[in-house]
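User: ABC transporter ATP-binding protein, Kribbella turkmenica:
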Amino acid sequence: MLEATEVAVEFASRGRRARAVDGVNLSIGAGEIVALVGESGCGKTTLARTLLGLERPTSGQVSYDGTPLSYTGRRLRAFRRQVQLVLQDPMGSLNPRQTVYEAVAEGPRIHGLPDEEEVVASALSRAGLRPPERFFLRYPHELSGGQRQRVVIAGALALSPKLLIADEPVASLDASVRGEILALLLRLRDELGLAALVVTHDLGLAWNIADRVAVMYLGRIVESGSTEEVLTNPQHPYTQALLSVLPESPQRIVLSGEPPDPTRIPTGCRFHPRCQLVAAGKGADACHTTPLPVLPPTTTGSEVACHLAQVPTPR
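Assistant: Predicted structure for ABC transporter ATP-binding protein:
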């Protein structure tokens, strides 16, 4: 359904160019949930915004249903009806002066959909706010955190999209509510055939909800594959370090330093300055000097960009 091909996004930064996204291939199939994971600052949100058409790629292209994304007003508007965004902070994304009805009705009004009240009621009901009429005249401050996130999801569902891009959809919620929102996303996938890209730093969330996982570091996908393959047998040292923070992990891997400045990408493997294997003296020459290829988009099998991984790196 949605595919990024060799997508790069650069921003001007103090006279230099910061490569926030640097040659990413990513595909999302119909009815599929893909988790995009990585630490803060790795480029996840910039990639999500680019997939939505909110940022234009410096190079590469985004395609929807096999057609390159057009940035003209009418075509972009039609595309955004099919692909909707769910933001991290529901209190920040809802207008405190708008009622729940007004918030959910905004999208249908922009797109000129008929039967507005019926559309709003149906969207709220699908998002788990029942009976929907009970919530029409409420304001965001009158709702719990979980209810506010359901309103945000209802606003996206009001346009009957085929794909949701959810940026840290449960990060601001209590643990007791997180499971409810994740269950809601899975139910929407089963009932509506809705696909989703879930942007998160939480590998536990990815394990519970995703069909496939793509691990991002410093603007690139460094490992991708089915959730079970990636999270039970990680090949990239970065993925191994991310998984080591989970309570059931037998060994804690502490990465040294911070992610490098995106205006000064390291030569060779971009992870080598922090890699625990390089620090132990394994394969240091290749990791310092030999560039790694961009991983191709894949819906089957695993791919990893690492000189020291046990599975072959794609060439």
